[in-house]
Specification:
The protein has 150 residues and is α/β, with parallel strands linked by helices. The chain has four helices and six strands. The radius of gyration is 35 Å and the shape is elongated.
């Protein structure tokens, strides 16, 4: 049972501490900033990375080199067999151009790998950059052809 004398406020409002109101307040004179120095003046000190005028760490360390250009990377799309059986009919030829025409892969994709998730029960001729072993077996078991195109 809840009693009135046991209630507590989950969001208590703490009164703002008024600094610099005389020695009796406990935080008079220097207002908690200590005596003299850069950190007691107006403007309150320097940035956290400032090293007192010494050459900073980010200038002393060598630059990172050796990242590869993004224009030379392989952009490969991975397509499962269940997607092929959904979008194509018996006897169709599946290659990068037909996949782009049907909207399965994006225009910038240059390589396609066929993966083995799902089932296919009709023959297809699939031309792709790479095949997983299970995908190759499933396509050939259904009577289709597999061609690796570079």
């Amino acid at each position: 049972m809840i009693k009135l004398n046991k209630l507590s406020n989950p969001f208590p409002r703490k009164k703002k501490f008024r600094v610099g109101r005389g020695p009796g307040s406990g935080s008079g004179k220097n207002c908690g900033y200590g005596n003299k120095g850069q950190k007691s003046r107006s403007g309150r000190g320097k940035e956290i990375w400032f090293e007192g005028g010494q050459t900073p760490i980010y200038k002393r360390l060598p630059q990172l080199k050796g990242f590869k250009s993004r224009k030379n990377r392989k952009i490969m799309a991975e397509i499962n067999i269940d997607t092929l059986s959904e979008f194509f009919k018996e006897g169709d030829i599946v290659d990068i151009d037909t996949l782009k025409d049907k909207g399965i892969i994006k225009e910038r994709v240059r390589f396609v790998k066929i993966l083995g998730r799902g089932e296919i029960d009709f023959p297809l001729t699939v031309k792709a950059s790479a095949f997983s072993e299970s995908a190759k077996k499933k396509i050939e078991k259904a009577g289709g052809k597999v061609e690796v195109v570079r």
